[in-house]
């Protein structure tokens, strides 16, 4: 099992960062051991057991004797309320920077996710836009905007994210034509583009991309360099990437050489 883990972490991580790494290791390895995690993160085994108990309550891992395994074999994701707290200052910076990519009028799609919830919160109060979204959280935020026409895409509700993501949602998006899509991603790399662990989510994101004249991706720096299970966009399909200034300049240069404008926040 030890050879499946990377080198021990040498810097102290916040609890949410440590737990995020534990989820990633569990997903990659299929099983993690308490003692090995304690050694990797240089914390006590009791701390790791508390982390695993927290993650089990979030339904992202299952506790087993001596360690944990993924909650599901086909991918999993933490509750929206948990993800909203992860890298929140960075997500708010992305949201503020992405506002400049709004069209003056017309229609946009706002994808689901904690970063895009932050984006919805900073939309100008009197923007004259039609907003299409599959996120109940985003719809609730924008319901208070008098000048915004909100259209919620139907489908089966994913309870962890409060978003609709299934074949019916894809079918509802396919006939649409919008000016700009604001989209998120679970993973991003210069070589693979934008990726997600979830096949249904990938199909919906691809439909959104097909419906949009311009695509703006908001991805915080913690996801850069990660390749997830399914690729849903190459850089040729992304007009603008909004990410954090902490990203390696070499990665930024490579992405820009492929034709995507990168905005650092």
Low-confidence stretches: 1-11, 73-77
Taken from the alpha-carbon principal axes, the silhouette is globular
Question: What is the count of β-strands?
Answer: 15
Measure the end-to-end span: 39 Å
User: Which percent band covers the strand fraction?
Assistant: 15-25%
Helical fraction: 25-40%
In N-to-C order, the SSE pattern is HEHHEEHHEHEHEEEHEEEHEEEHE
Q: Number of helical segments?
A: 10
Q: Please state how the strands of the largest beta sheet are arranged side by side.
A: 6-5-4-9-12-14-15
Class per helix and strand makeup:
alpha/beta
> What can be said about the biggest beta sheet?
7 strands, parallel
- The mean pLDDT is 88
Gyration radius, in Å: 19 Å
Molecular structure report:
The chain is of the alpha/beta class. A seven-stranded parallel sheet has the order 6-5-4-9-12-14-15, sandwiched between helices. A three-stranded antiparallel sheet has the order 1-3-2. A three-stranded antiparallel sheet has the order 10-11-13, with helices on one face. A hairpin with a 2-residue loop joins β2 and β3. The longest helix is centred in the first third of the chain and has 15 residues. The chain is globular and about 55 Å long. 40% of the residues are buried.
Task: For this entry, give a set of tags.
disordered N terminus, 10 helices, alpha/beta, about 260 residues
The gist of it:
By secondary structure, the chain is α/β, with parallel strands linked by helices.
């Amino acid at each position: 099992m030890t050879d499946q883990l990377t080198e021990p972490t040498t810097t102290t991580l916040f609890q949410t960062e440590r737990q995020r790494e534990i989820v990633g290791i569990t997903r990659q390895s299929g099983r993690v051991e308490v003692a090995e995690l304690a050694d990797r993160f240089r914390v006590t085994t009791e701390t790791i057991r508390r982390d695993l108990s927290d993650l089990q309550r979030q339904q992202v891992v299952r506790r087993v004797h001596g360690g944990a395994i993924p909650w599901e074999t086909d991918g999993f994701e933490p509750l929206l309320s948990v993800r909203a707290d992860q890298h929140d200052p960075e997500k708010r910076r992305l949201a503020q920077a992405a506002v400049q990519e709004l069209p003056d009028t017309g229609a946009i799609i706002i994808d689901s996710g904690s970063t895009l919830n932050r984006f919805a919160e900073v939309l100008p109060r009197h923007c004259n836009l039609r907003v299409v979204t599959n996120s109940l959280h985003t719809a609730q935020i924008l319901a208070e905007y008098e000048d915004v026409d909100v259209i919620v895409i139907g489908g089966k509700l994913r309870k962890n994210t409060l978003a609709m993501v299934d074949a019916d949602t894809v079918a509802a998006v396919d006939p649409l034509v919008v000016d700009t899509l604001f989209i998120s991603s679970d993973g991003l790399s210069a070589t693979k583009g934008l990726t997600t662990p979830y096949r249904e989510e990938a199909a919906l994101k691809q439909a959104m991309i097909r419906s949009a004249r311009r695509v703006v991706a908001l991805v915080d720096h913690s996801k850069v360099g990660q390749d997830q299970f399914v690729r849903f966009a190459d850089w040729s399909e992304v007009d603008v990437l909004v990410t954090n200034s902490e990203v390696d300049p070499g990665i930024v240069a490579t992405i820009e050489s492929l034709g995507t404008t990168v905005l650092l926040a």
